[in-house]
Amino acid sequence: MKRDIHLEETYPFPPERVWTALTDSAAIADWLMPNNFAPKLGHRFQFHTKPQPGFDGIVNCEVIELEPPRRLAFTWAGGGIQTVARFVLEPVAGGTLLKFEHTGFRGPRAMMVSFILGSGWKSKILPKNLPECVARVSEEGYRPLAADGLERKCG
Question: Which end of the chain is more exposed for a tag (fewer CB within 10 A), N or C?
């Protein structure tokens, strides 16, 4: 029993701006979750979210692919599942095509988690949260929503 998530979104921004939102820790905190990410191959980091039954709210990750500004992948382990999230950016007329895959969901529990995560990636994170954050990337870098670090999710 296996299920993978494959999604595509096109954004009206150049790949370099999308890349900044994908690799800046403050930006990632705004569109996804608080973290201690660094764009370095082999870097181990964590995402933190609200604990749920059977999940302590911590996702342990490691950067396993890094090809600026084109490809980023990291392991994603938490709540008894071990998967890989991968982002591939391609320049297109008027912007950037983002190809996203979250793979490695095997077994009944992982299948359930894949439906929950897949729904979030598809309905809110990639079509709404991420592009709202990319819009705040300038030549100077990323501009976070809140200076106090509280409730910074885009949207």
Answer: N
